[in-house]
Specification:
37% helix, 201 residues, Rossmann fold, alpha/beta, EC 2.1.2.2, globular, Formyl_transf_N_sf, Phosphoribosylglycinamide formyltransferase, purine biosynthesis, single chain, 24% strand, seven-stranded mixed beta sheet, binds 5-O-phosphono-beta-D-ribofuranosylamine, two-stranded antiparallel ribbon
């Protein structure tokens, strides 16, 4: 399975996926990193991992559709089977979502549909829920609204701050995301009418 990872920030999820691909634990090829923030740490990680990066500034383009057409060309050039959003902080348009529907996944730091948006962990903490978690879902046109593939709970502990909670969420993400990508690679994830079934091994 040929995958592209989209990321905007630190890239700890990118790292977990690239590491498992390199060790053979995960039978995928990380063909491309797409990053919309020049200077993001994930770019260094890609360099070290020997993964080619396409880095761009959205402000250099007239519209989201304009740069997404460029991204779509890159994905097609490299024959990408699966697009993995890992901290990519932009909504996508139909230019990318339609051709990749069912072949594009995202990870979000809450138990969706609770706490969508850019601060899933902080919002859960502020609300006062006792359990939050991590969700991996297919990408549709909404913000964190697509069909859910997998979820893992993360209990909120007495004295948690946003940082301590995010650190525990990241630990869960680093395991869950590669696992789901493995299911995709094995053809075990079926999407039908917004419902996802994961077939047994
Ligand atoms: C993760 O918490 C992910 O759930 C969210 O953005 C964060 C990305 O972290 N969508 P990293 O860049 O992979 O370290």
């Amino acid at each position: 399975l040929r995958i592209a990872v989209f990321a905007s920030g630190s890239g700890s999820n990118f790292q977990a996926i690239a590491d498992q691909a390199a060790s053979g634990q995960l039978d995928v090829q990380v063909e491309l990193l797409v990053c919309d923030r020049p200077g993001a740490y994930v770019i260094e990680r890609a360099e070290k991992a020997g993964v080619p990066a396409f880095v761009f500034s959205p402000k250099d383009y007239g519209s989201r559709e304009d740069y997404e057409r460029v991204l779509l060309d890159k994905l097609r050039e490299r024959q990408i089977d699966l697009v993995v959003l890992a901290g990519y902080m932009r909504l996508l348009t139909p230019v990318l979502v339609e051709p990749y529907y069912g072949r594009m996944i995202n990870i979000h730091p809450s138990l969706l549909p609770a706490f969508p948006g850019t601060h899933g962990a902080r919002d859960a903490l502020e609300y006062g829920v006792k359990v939050t978690g991590v969700t991996v879902h297919f990408v549709d046109l909404g913000m964190d609204t697509g069909p859910i593939i997998a979820q893992e709970p993360v209990p909120i502990q007495e004295g948690d701050t946003e940082d301590t909670l995010i650190e525990r969420i990241h630990q869960v993400e680093r395991e869950l995301y590669p696992r789901v990508i493995g299911w995709m690679q094995q053809g075990r994830v079926q999407l039908k009418d917004r419902k996802v079934a994961v077939l047994a091994e």
